[in-house]
């Protein structure tokens, strides 16, 4: 059996998820998250509509890739080169220094903090470093939004909650552990983490 290609050697593209591709993210969401934690299609549609600039997809170019499952669902926004959505990060804006159940279920257009709801990679592409690369691309994307703000309100921080066994992934790209979160979603406890953006 050949070794699976790592993220750095895969032909990946990172771009905003279109409204047409939201159902593709939902298919990954319900595959990778327990039912008690997975977002509904309605929630994902809301988040893409409310903050499309905060919904980043990781797509695999199919032209020169031989390391992919046979069940391929092409991106609806692909052009000449077929693309397969293999992961995504979706967020909304919130106000304040900490996440609450209320802030995580809404979008505050005037908020100065990014609330990450999902960091998800399809199971067929896990354990290749894609989540780490996706997170780094996302943080660079957010910094780019700040750099292009032209005097308007800038984003100050990125907040998320994670289960204890995944906190190392986020710490590896610069997130700092705040502590146990007050948010209850599913049976297991959550831990809040923060990444401070440059101003």
From TrEMBL:
Organism field: Linnemannia hyalina
Superkingdom field: Eukaryota
Keyword terms: Acyltransferase, Transferase
Full protein name: N-acetyltransferase domain-containing protein
Gene Ontology molecular function: aralkylamine N-acetyltransferase activity
Coiled-coil segments on the chain, per record: none
One GO cellular component term noted in the UniProt record for this chain: cytoplasm
Family matches, as Pfam families: Acetyltransf_10
Residues annotated as domain N-acetyltransferase: 28-198
